[in-house]
Design brief:
Blueprint (H helix, E strand, L loop, with lengths): L3 E5 L4 H12 L3 E5 L8 H10 L4 E3 L6 H10 L3 E6 L6 H6 L1 H19 L5 E8 L23 H19 L3 E8 L1 E3 L18 H10 L5 E4 L11 E2 L1 E3 H16 L7 E6 L5 E2 H12 L5 E4 L14 H7 L7 H20 L1
Parallel strand pairs: 1-2, 1-4, 2-3, 4-5, 5-6, 6-11, 7-10, 8-13
Antiparallel strand pairs: 9-12
Helix pairs in contact: 1-2, 1-8, 3-5, 5-6, 7-11, 9-11
Length: 344
């Protein structure tokens, strides 16, 4: 029997691009998603790109019985990439229990099952939020984890600790936490991309929605930060590069190449761009003029974060290949496609 990779949250933004990367590398994929922040149409997008329709199970991972039932049905899972989580920082402040349950109970149920297997390989979606405002830039994996600013950020810190503690006593379980910087962009075909529900929390969907006329104006939160142009700096990584990194990390675990059964890697480009630089890049690559205003600083925003990529480069042999312009161009192509399909 061919071994399969389980991708939880595989119809979401990063998950769907990773499913495509896995299929293109010859893996068989089964997706679990409860469609709480995605659409079943994403499956069609994946099929159009790869000519393969992965198996799909509409399961809510908070339902422990269903999780167990899944593993009884699928006995040949060789690896799990766990994207499923809630990710809106503001919502996590208003509804912390939803976040602790959805981001941690689901992780525990998966690990309980995987730790019983003879050989289990697990990739976890973590975030650079674990570093808060780091004392030095670029941020390496050895930078201290700072007290979380939100329940969402806390779930990533606790999630990493849960995995680390479990790996200590279950050598059969091999795991990697990937700390993403700021994922943006879409598949170049525009068949899949980011589908924010309601008001986007992140800069790039806000930019594309403003450019297409769904929003009147973009707010730049603060221009008095101690940076070159006063606006915040982030490390924007193309989702296609990010997806590829998951396949590389999973292979490392499955081929038993890792020295330790738990490790952490940053996934970023290593380059920081300010909000104004992103706006300029968008205008340059798309030829669209953006209406924006400078607004008050937003609570909880840090000044600057970008990744030290040495560990991912040297240990995983992975580096980002696509630049900011390419990412913004793909995000714009995707926005136009989504808006067209909404009109029809
Ligand atoms: P997303 O919301 O697009 O995808 C998550 C998917 O998981 C969705 O399809 C949703 O329906 C599904 N899901 C949520 N709860 C579920 C449950 N209980 N059972 C089954 N399915 C469930 O998010 P994304 O941007 O693709 O992020 C993926 C992961 O990466 C998340 O863990 C997120 O916290 C993490 N992350 C994202 C970013 C980012 O900026 N996008 C940055 C750092 C880390």
């Amino acid at each position: 029997m061919k071994s399969k990779i389980l991708v939880t949250g595989g119809l979401g933004f990063i998950g769907s691009h990773t499913v495509v990367a896995l299929i293109e590398q010859g893996y068989e994929v089964v997706i679990i998603d409860n469609l709480s922040n995605s659409s079943i149409n994403v499956l069609g997008g994946i099929t159009k790109i790869t000519q393969v329709t992965p198996e799909f199970e509409n399961i809510d991972l908070r339902n422990k019985e269903e999780v167990l039932g899944f593993f009884e049905k699928h006995t040949n899972i060789a690896g799990v990439i766990h994207f499923a989580a809630s990710k809106a920082v503001g919502e996590s402040v208003e509804n912390p229990l939803l976040y602790y349950e959805n981001n941690l109970a689901t992780l525990i149920y998966l690990l309980q099952r995987l730790s019983e297997k003879e050989d289990a390989n697990f990739i976890f979606s973590s975030s650079c939020t674990v570093y808060g405002q780091a004392d030095t830039l670029p941020i390496s994996e050895s930078a201290p984890v700072k007290k979380a600013e939100s329940p969402y950020g806390n779930t990533k810190q606790i999630g990493e600790e849960i995995i680390k503690d479990t790996c200590k006593v279950h050598p059969n379980l091999k795991a990697i936490s990937l700390r993403y910087f700021n994922p943006i962009g879409a598949h170049p075909s525009a068949e899949i991309g980011e589908l924010p529900i309601g008001t986007p929390q992140n800069l790039v969907p806000f930019i594309t929605q403003t450019a297409i006329g769904k929003r009147e104006q973009l707010s730049v939160f603060g221009n008095d930060y101690p940076t070159n142009d006063g606006t915040c700096i982030r490390d924007y990584i193309h989702v296609m590069d990010l997806a590829r990194a998951h396949v590389v990390a999973l292979k490392r675990l499955m081929n038993n190449e890792a020295e330790s059964n738990y490790d952490v890697f940053n996934l970023g480009t290593g380059k920081g761009n300010s909000v104004l630089e992103v706006i300029q890049s968008f205008e340059r690559t798309t030829g669209k003029k953006l209406s924006y205003k400078i607004a008050e600083r937003r609570e909880g925003d840090i000044t600057a974060a970008y990744a030290d990529t040495i560990k991912a480069n040297s240990v995983l042999g992975w580096r980002s290949e696509k630049d900011l312009d390419e990412a913004l161009e793909s995000a714009w192509k995707w926005e136009k496609k989504v808006t067209d399909s909404e009109k029809n």
